[in-house]
Design goal:
single chain, 285 residues, mainly alpha, 10 helices, 0% strand
């Protein structure tokens, strides 16, 4: 006869977590909350000032030959010279015309197309595969065909910006529809709304801030494409100005063109942010 010997069960070891640790308050490392405007402006000033000081130091100490790195003063002088000669305003005008033409055309098509693809699964199933394939084709690879079909005028440059931004705008607008709360749509149906009312009075107002942000982000891609098109074949434009300066080793004019492009891009970005604050105050914190 066997007898069962009770096996003692040791209680599980539970580590005492100790007193709860409190995170030290930090203004700089705050998460998902705004920082004081004074600190924000100071950091923005540093982001511009530090690279300028480093540039000035590299150029003034002679570590890099002036042929490869002109000083900030030389670049400012080149900008003034190009502006006074009338070349810079003309180049800015042509580049802006090509960008705004191609990007506006892409936006006019991408907003309704992306909204429909995001709203209706049937439209998304119909168009997403072809959009997904074409968007992986580099827009610059279309340059030979555009020149072959439309020559060397303004049309191929505008179409290059159009092709390069259309599909990204479309897919980003489509994705913004996914964040529309389902409860809002169901509540509209419960109150007697139809599909058109859901589309135009619920979905489209909700995604409008996302559409403006999409345009703001993808405007940088439009600048890349127009500069590439002007480097290939153009008689005016900022890309053409940089290409000509490179042939004659005028690095100060190359830097001048790059800085002007950056300043115009920053101005456009600020305009989009202001438009967002003006048109969608409810969405801006």
């Amino acid at each position: 006869m066997t007898s069962h010997v009770p096996i003692p069960h040791n209680p599980p070891l539970v580590r005492d977590p100790g007193p709860a640790r409190m995170l030290r308050p930090s203004t700089f490392w705050t998460i998902a909350d705004p920082i004081p405007s004074r600190l924000s402006w100071s950091l923005m000033g540093l982001s511009i000032g530090v690279p300028l000081v480093l540039w000035w130091l590299l150029a003034s100490t002679g570590w890099v030959r002036p042929l490869f790195l002109p000083s900030p003063a030389q670049v400012v002088g080149a900008i003034g010279q190009l502006w006074n000669s009338g070349a810079l305003p003309k180049d800015i005008q042509f580049s802006l015309m090509r960008i705004l033409g191609g990007f506006a055309l892409a936006t006019v098509i991408a907003i309704p197309l992306g909204t429909l693809m995001g709203t209706f699964a049937s439209i998304r199933s119909l168009l997403e595969p072809i959009v997904g394939i074409v968007r992986y084709m580099p827009a610059t690879a279309f340059i030979p065909l555009l020149i072959l079909y439309f020559g060397l005028g303004e049309v191929p440059k505008i179409l290059l910006v159009f092709i390069g931004t259309l599909f990204f705008n479309t897919l980003m607008v489509m994705d913004s529809v996914k964040f529309v709360p389902k409860e809002m749509i169901e509540a509209t149906y419960t109150l007697g709304g139809n599909r058109l009312q859901v589309l135009f009075q619920v979905i489209f107002p909700y995604i409008t801030p996302g559409i403006i942000d999409t345009c703001r982000v993808n405007m940088a891609a439009a600048w890349n494409l127009v500069i590439v098109s002007e480097l290939v074949a153009a008689t005016e434009g900022l890309g053409r100005r940089i290409s000509v300066a490179q042939r004659f080793l005028k690095t100060d004019e190359i830097f001048a063109g790059l800085i002007v492009i950056g300043l115009i891009g920053l101005a456009i970005d600020i305009l989009f942010r202001m438009f967002l604050r003006f048109s969608c105050r409810w969405a801006v914190k």
